């Protein structure tokens, strides 16, 4: 069985965010990290986001992001819910957007004449980010596994997790959940 992407704890996520704050494109990179860890979206889904998907016409961040079927792995449209912490982060980033054409990508790339990140370039972006921070075993998929594991740790039902992650099979969700001490400790406390 292939090794799965590392699930990050809060201290490791903080380390990534602190590193982002010291680098070029800090606001964009923080917003990217927060988007990934607070929504559980796939890297391809985040790369596909357009300004119109994330922002209302009054430039405020939406509470819900509607992913089109063609932008999801399962080819089924779904709604991604945006919590208040993420909304604030995205609003800060949105203030820096130079091009506000609703059809442009929400997350710009620093590459000249680029429409923004592709799934591949965003995957590479996270690979190098985690490498620079020193998180062995972390990849762009770490945020998705972390999101799902965090929900499981908090006792969120698997059907809700399936809905939030866009999974159709229980077995798929189960593969994402990192069975850890916190999860087991929470379980025995319920007895």
Automatic annotation (TrEMBL):
InterPro entries: DNA_brk_join_enz, Integrase-like_cat_sf, Integrase_catalytic, Tyrosine_recombinase_XerCD. It comes from Polynucleobacter campilacus. SUPFAM superfamilies: DNA breaking-rejoining enzymes. One of its GO terms (biological process) is DNA integration. This is Integrase. Keywords: DNA integration, DNA recombination, DNA-binding. The keyword DNA-binding applies. One of its GO terms (molecular function) is DNA binding. Residues 3-189 form the Tyr recombinase domain. Signal peptide: none annotated. PANTHER family: INTEGRASE_RECOMBINASE PROTEIN MJ0367-RELATED, PHAGE INTEGRASE-RELATED. Belongs to the 'phage' integrase family. It comes from the Bacteria.
């Amino acid at each position: 069985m292939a090794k799965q992407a590392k699930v990050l704890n809060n201290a490791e996520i903080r380390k990534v965010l602190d590193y982002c704050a010291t680098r070029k494109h800090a606001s964009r990179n923080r917003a990217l990290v927060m988007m990934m860890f607070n929504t559980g979206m796939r890297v391809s889904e985040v790369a596909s986001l357009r300004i119109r998907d994330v922002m209302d016409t009054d430039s405020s961040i939406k509470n819900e992001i509607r992913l089109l079927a063609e932008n999801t792995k399962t080819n089924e449209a779904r709604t991604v819910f945006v919590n208040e912490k993420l909304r604030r982060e995205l609003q800060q980033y949105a203030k820096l957007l130079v091009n506000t054409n609703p059809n442009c990508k929400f997350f710009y790339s620093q590459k000249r004449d680029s429409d923004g990140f592709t799934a591949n370039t965003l995957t590479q972006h996270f690979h190098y980010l985690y490498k620079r921070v020193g998180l062995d075993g972390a990849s762009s998929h770490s945020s998705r596994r972390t999101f799902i594991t965090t929900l499981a740790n908090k006792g969120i039902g698997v059907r809700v997790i399936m809905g939030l992650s866009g999974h159709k099979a229980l077995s798929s969700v189960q593969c994402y959940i990192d069975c850890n001490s916190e999860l087991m400790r929470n379980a025995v406390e319920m007895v």
